[in-house]
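Example record

The entry below shows one chain as it appears in the dataset: sequence first, then structure tokens.
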Amino acid sequence: MIILHGISSLNIGGAETALYRLIKNDKSNFHHIITLSKNGYYKNHLSYFNNVKIYEVDLKKIHKIFINIYIIIKIIRSIKPDIIQTWLYHSDFLIGIIAKLLGHKKIYWNIRNAKLKFKYNSLSLNFLIIFNAFLSYFVPKKIIVNSTAGIKYHQKLYYSNKKIIKISNGFEFDYMNEDDNLRNQFRKIHSIGNNTLLIGMVSRWHKQKNFEMLFKSLKLLEIQYTDWQLILVGENINRQNKVLCSQLNSYNILEKTILHPVTNNLNKVYNAIDIHVSTSHGEGFPNVVLESVSFNKISLSTNTGDSEEILKKNIFLFEYNDHKSLYEKLLFFKNKKNYEKIKNDLVIPISNKNRIKYSILNMVNEYNKLWRIS
């Protein structure tokens, strides 16, 4: 089959990573991608595959909006896709409507969020989230949501309930294993002691990610325990980010923090850290939570999205506005006896179960099953 994907960008993000993994592991279809912005991290990676062609439409140039819409129309007409699979609200809206007006019936939306805080979104995104609820009754044949929390959230927003189905994210677990050599190498490069508690957060810089909550917790931790360091990894995580550096400085933890850019080798980061923290206000399926657990690391997360479904136990969960609870958990896990006991009794069994439930093969099969029977 010929599958046409529409997506906002090919930068690093949950949807973009899922699309990349889907195409990488799907050998039975040819995939075309319309991306609504130029370049992006995954562009070059996808270009290595023989079953992919990428089309770039730069919607940031507002004065060329009608030209770009015409280009999208020409692409769809020339490809004659069997399936149109859109990802995220902007693409669901724009490419979904264009495809519908061109007479395509097999249009599938993909929604990845749950419990987003509207006050942290742009006005245009909030409009699309609400307006797409109306369009959901007319445009897509099915709406793919990657989390149970995402389904409940969009049902409350009155998205078409009969069209919503769940396909969980899939992961390449063969590349996710504990490696003491990677741990030691990374720590040596960054002058981190072997016994130093290394706390990590893999996330792009955004208000929805609630970074300041982590900083508040670490300020409290510093009073009781000082042999720790923090590593932040993601888009716009650098010294040029003045707001980030200002916040770190205001909590007196800038000098204990490593700011690491986006990397295609998170294995070394996950192996190096002891604890991963996710403080998001709202998530659908938090990839970083599952990834960190897959390396047998303690993973602490706000009780949002499917975090509870992944982590199973409340000992790993806290509320997004309760930085003291996070601090108490960090204080508990800095004790090596506590850390090792919970790791062996809970983390490793959870990791083993997740490897079966969230395999990349399961995800690819679910998409192909949907595309073929519909």
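Notes for this example: The mean pLDDT is 94. Residues 2-170+359-373 form a domain with the Rossmann fold fold (CATH 3.40.50.2000).
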